[in-house]
What does this fold into?
Amino acid sequence: MSKAATRFVPSHRSRSKSEAFAIIPIVVFAYAIIVEPLLGFLSSPTNAIGLSGAAAVEALMRPRIENKIFWPVITAITVYYVAKNLPRLKNLPPHIILLLIYLAYAGTSVLWAFNPGLTLTRFVLQSMIVTCIVLPIIMADKNADVIPGIFGCFACAVILNLPIVLSQTPIIYDTWKGPEIIGYPGYFSFKGELGECAAVAFLLSLHELFYRGRRRVIGLIVLVISVYLAIESKSKGSLGMAIISPTLALAVLFIGRLIRTSPALTLLPIPLTYYVMSKVYGNILNRISWYALGNYDLSGRAYIWNFVQYEISKKPILGWGYQSFWLVGPNGPSVLEAPGWIKGMPSGHSGYLDTMLELGYVGWMLLVAFIFATLHAIGRVAERNLLRAWLLLTLALFVILSNFLESIWMRGQGTLWVTFLVVVADAGRYWRRAPSVSRHPQRAVTRV
It folds into this structure.
């Protein structure tokens, strides 16, 4: 007598829904890091040399027709699928709840924002971005994995940028020492964006090396191209943090497993130690700047931060309103009150200071709580998949560290912010318990 082995496989309808959820964030990434910047590059009359600082700021203020089309359409598709699968949204992880609270508070700031119209517009865009990345990933089937698709987007981005950089004239600034090469932007508006894209591609490539066959070969090729582009972009910060992040993530996971603590608690002594040492020695940041960047003012950031701290003191509790300080027009506070060249800055070059500037101490505390909750959630991932936890923690640390030098937290569709949203959502998938097997969306297959 033969023995029948019965197993359950997803039905066609179940698979199609899961595939739809998984493909939405991949489409978002393809648009954010390839389509949108490439269209901007091709439509720019100065695409051969990149944009000057003033032209780049003006370009940031100019509405893009492709954004007006893409984001409402992809959001409508996302909402349609979410509405048909609302039961999957129950029991959201704490860090995602904190993200939604942080986002809601940013939207509430329209009530006191310097420019309520721009705050509302930018909040709506940010809500679309969060919706189209976080919800599809966390609602996808437990076997669905968006990481390979997102790696594919970054692989295409660095490969497309390679011939552009090879044929591109670098951005050159006149300094007191004479003409100085600042770096290559590729098809991005700023050379820093190319550095960030190359750095994330590098980190994802490291993860691909753990797999055999074609994935390892492609990962190695993308890794080499990413290192080259990061060097050519002259993004020292991105390159340095891309080296530090995977090593630090490995150490944190090892120590956490040894003493049974989450990454959030394992990392806590680092900022506390820095705070104590800065009080004792005073100019630690200046010394780090000298050894890392060759100057004592973090390439001019110290002057920007002094101005930002002065503006924070005017509205310390609630801030100026979400994205209602920089790039709000000729009458904006950054233009009227900033000294010299700081008037043309698109941000304060610090995600933490800009959060405090725009959303006050209340928003800053919500951000810190959200970050620590996300790190704690990654600790839960380590209990089930150590390699995935290492990747998520590496990406999270890279974004967290980058925010000390650049403004990334909840800033439009920036490469690092959408990458962090993937970390948040993927960690949330591991936080939630696997759902019980349902009889309705599955069919039995009997193998004799």
Observations:
- The first strand starts at residue 5 and ends at 10.
- DSSP finds 17 helices and four strands in the chain.
